[in-house]
TrEMBL record:
The keyword Transferase applies. NCBIfam families: PseF. GO terms for molecular function: N-acylneuraminate cytidylyltransferase activity. This is N-acylneuraminate cytidylyltransferase. SUPFAM superfamilies: Nucleotide-diphospho-sugar transferases. Keywords: Nucleotidyltransferase, Transferase. The lineage of its organism: Bacteria, Pseudomonadati, Pseudomonadota, Gammaproteobacteria, Pseudomonadales. The keyword Endoplasmic reticulum does not apply. It comes from the Bacteria.
Amino acid sequence: MKIAIIPARGGSKRIPRKNIKPFCGKPMIAWSIEAALRSACFDQVIVSTDDTEIAEVASQFGATVPFMRPAELSDDHTGTIPVIRHAIEWFNAQGKTVEQACCLYATAPFVSAEDIRRGLDVLQGSDCDYAFSVTSYAFPIQRAIRITEQGRVEMFNPEHFNTRSQDLEEAFHDAGQFYWGRAAAWREGRMIFSSSSMPVILPRHRVQDIDTAEDWVRAEWMFKAMQSQAQ
């Protein structure tokens, strides 16, 4: 079976109750749930949470919450892979064999059903462990600068000071939306950022980390603008 697993613990610090805070008219997590359901990729769309209110909201928007996530997997230091592994092993223990699982973040309102389907196609059309969303940096990372303790500026790669931007290799980063993976890869804790993964490239205007109040405001502006253009 194929499952979508949306991790959504209750202890968000920087934006309290971020996973269910209203975003453009719906709880944030609802956008991810609805995209997963529209994709028609999954036998089940589940939310892994330790929080009863999040569980109730998730159920209202069509996800299932077949278990409550244990406390040892719900602190600030727990990574994504152990949470996905726990969900896969829970299903296997119920006699339901998971073949592919997609980790879909609860705070990814720009995720689309079409991109989720593309991710599945990439995974199934290759021998890779994972296929996940990426986007390009807007500026060449080879020309990045840091601010020193003395308040001065220095380049990370000073050898590229005179290199033209168009001559530098394009770089990409994790888009933070979804991660398709084979069940064995999740269970064995194989690295996602490796040569055993393949990219699903997204345009930069549909990628926004939402970690601060400023991020949230910017994301709502972008989202409303995109909705307005689509009408």
